[in-house]
Design brief:
The chain has 219 residues and is α/β, with parallel strands linked by helices. The protein has one domain: NAD(P)-binding Rossmann-like Domain (Rossmann fold, 3-Layer(aba) Sandwich). It is built from seven helices and nine strands, in the order βαβββααβαββαβαβα. A seven-stranded parallel sheet has the order 3-2-1-4-5-6-9, with helices on both faces. A two-stranded parallel ribbon has the order 7-8. β7, α5 (162-174) and β8 (185-186) form a beta-alpha-beta unit. The two termini are 17 Å apart.
Length: 219
């Protein structure tokens, strides 16, 4: 596992930035390549930022693992087409380029309720991406399906999401009544669970919030 090379698409987002920092801090990771429409604020000798157009991705450097954390909302994207262009097309383009670069294992930040047959557009797109990745010849695919995320988007220069704010407030008050998979989850727990599972993945694995909290707490 030493001298791993990782690629992160979406390293400026809530979960993506936590994944990026975890890779930077991991002594077994030799290089980290961040793909995005802007460079992440993180700095490290092992980090190379690639400011890219996901519709015209260049060849990527050889790597062993990929983390897909590109995501938005229809409100922030401005339209259903713009949402799909980022959440589906850009993630899939990064996966195809990473496969060509030799990547064997992939971690995806998806969403609770992802289902390619859902009547809810957001959930359907998330599910379609999961199925597209599962059809690619990667050695392992780890899909994180978090519930509402906890964390400060304002610190990343992003607009807060009302659903996440309400979810966090309800979770603090009534968390003991909410099933583990439905409780709001910290972005750090999602990142930690993916970072623990992806390097050695040999099959498709889906992680929900309760399982991610457990894995994140393991030494």
């Amino acid at each position: 596992m030493a001298n791993r090379v990782a690629i992160v698409a979406g390293a400026t987002g809530l979960v993506g930035s936590a994944i990026l920092q975890g890779l930077i801090d991991d002594p077994n990771v030799a290089e980290v390549h961040a793909l995005g429409r802007r460079a992440p604020p993180a700095r490290s000798p092992k980090l190379t930022a690639h400011v890219v157009d996901f519709a015209r991705l260049p060849d990527l450097p050889p790597a062993s693992e990929l983390y897909l954390a590109l995501g938005t909302t229809i409100r922030d994207a401005g339209s259903s087409d713009a949402f799909r262009a980022l959440d589906y097309d850009a993630n899939l383009a990064a996966a195809k380029a990473a496969l060509a670069a030799g990547v064997k294992t992939v971690g995806l930040v998806s969403a609770m309720g992802a289902d390619s047959r859902s009547r809810v557009f957001y959930s359907r797109v998330k599910g379609e991406l999961e199925e597209a990745l599962a059809g690619m010849p990667f050695q392992g695919l780890v899909v994180a399906r978090p519930s509402l995320l906890e964390g400060s988007r304002a610190e990343l220069g992003q607009r807060s999401r009302a659903g996440e704010d309400w979810g966090a407030a309800i979770g603090r008050l009534f968390g003991f009544l909410i099933p583990a998979d439905y409780k709001p989850i910290a972005e750090s727990a999602v990142a930690a669970a993916l970072l623990a599972a992806v390097p050695s993945a040999t099959q498709r694995l889906t992680l929900r919030s309760g399982e991610m909290r457990r894995r994140a707490a393991e030494p």
